[in-house]
Specification:
Elements: H1 14-25, H2 34-44, H3 48-58, E1 72-75, E2 78-81, E3 84-86, H4 91-103, H5 112-119, E4 123-124, H6 128-137, H7 140-145, E5 168-174, E6 185-191, E7 197-202, H8 208-223, E8 228-231
Helix pairs in contact: 5-6
Bound molecules: zinc ion.
């Protein structure tokens, strides 16, 4: 497909498919090594807050103003909080966990939210969010390389009124649905003028070629090439898919 004009157009996205895949199939292997767990276990035994929780649990206390005691349980010498390992108040330990989940090659210096998400797959401590935000905000590498992780955003401007059916469409994906006939995502394509829509059941793992094919059959063939596409996925819809 060829560009007709290259301004004012929001384009179909390779990134969208990656994001789609990310929602369903992503696994990042950040193994918790034994040595780290041992250290957490040792330091837990001397940690004030953890000791306090253990005492309360042992005495049958069920309510605490700050901590959901019901979510705390023991697991082989570790205090678990809602299934996560409670990390003692020790900077060496916490910084090491952050290095593993932010600085490590597999992590690649993600932003605040992503770093928090990665850490909180396995670990918890009180004040964790703040701690992680501060760490990411002060990461030297992040400051110096300021990588551009997205294609340039289009200019924000008011939407023009659509002047022909299927001239302006909006679309978005609904993902992580219960699987039905092998499909677990819905691609919603709406004409902004008539509000008619196409709802394409698809797989979260569908590759770009499949999506392009769907787009061609569902939209371009019956309605012609839209002059603009609006999407709530922002920059996801601005790559050079049309080339
Ligand atoms: Zn960083």
């Amino acid at each position: 497909m060829k560009h007709r004009q290259n301004h004012g157009r929001i384009l179909l996205p390779k990134e969208a498919f990656k994001a789609l895949q990310a929602n369903t199939t992503e696994t990042i292997n950040l193994e918790i090594d034994k040595e780290l767990v041992n250290e957490i276990r040792t330091l837990s035994a001397a940690d004030k807050e953890i000791q306090d929780i253990r005492r309360k649990k042992a005495s049958g206390t069920t309510y605490d103003r700050k901590i959901a005691l019901g979510l705390c349980e023991e697991n082989s010498g570790l205090l678990m909080y809602d299934g996560l390992i409670w990390v003692p108040d020790n900077d060496t330990l916490r910084l090491r966990i952050l290095r593993d989940h932010h600085d490590a090659q597999a992590a690649g210096h993600p932003g605040r939210a992503r770093t928090l998400e990665l850490v909180s797959r396995n670990f918890y401590w009180s004040g964790q969010r703040k701690y992680i935000h501060r760490y990411v905000d002060h990461c030297d590498t992040c400051h110096h390389r300021k990588p551009i992780r997205h294609v340039p955003f289009g200019l924000l401007k008011p939407l023009e009124l659509p002047h022909r059916p299927w001239g302006t469409i909006s679309m978005h994906f609904i993902t992580a649905l219960p699987t039905s006939n092998g499909k677990d995502a819905l691609w919603v394509i709406i004409d902004r003028l008539t509000k008619m829509g196409h709802f394409v059941a698809c797989q979260g793992t569908m590759d770009p070629e499949d999506l392009a094919d769907h787009f061609l059959r569902q939209v371009i063939r019956p309605h012609g090439l839209p002059s603009s596409i609006v999407s709530d996925r922002g920059s996801l819809f601005t790559s050079d898919f049309w080339k």
